[in-house]
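Tutorial, part two.
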Amino acid sequence: MKVFKCKICQEGYLGDEAPTHCPFCGAHQPYLIEAKDFDIPEYTLTDVSRNNLEEALKLEVGNAEFYFCAAGRSDNVADATMFKRLGKVESEHASTIAKELKISSPDISREKDMCNNEDVGNLAESHQREANAIEHYTKFLGDATEERIKEIFTAIVEIEKDHLSLSEGRF
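Running the prediction step on this input gives:
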């Protein structure tokens, strides 16, 4: 058994080999490396990247809270499970962004009334939220000059595209 660490969320994983995706943040396998090889070089955050990370943090917190609401209102176990997992992944993204901003992880409510009462409406909103995140993070990626920030936004765009595919054709 080996110890792996995600280069994006910095969480650990134990296994014979790296999973296809980080079980915490959803980063694809290339971001999962053996912990003995893990290192994040120091860097200075530009004002542009700081502002973009702050905006990304707001998006991730809002999306996590939406997904937890949708999970609680879902009328079937499959969608409830999907929404809950997406809420946890978006929460991990918020925590990752907070680390880069050197601030405390945000409080994410699981009780906000911010979703629809039917799965079809929540699937449609999920699709819109993921598309919005992809659009913003692609812009933020283009703005970034720091390699670490480029890496984070590249990974999160990939993850959000995975999320987008979950709702395609379902609403």
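DSSP finds four helices and three strands in the chain. In part three we will examine how such features are distributed along the chain.
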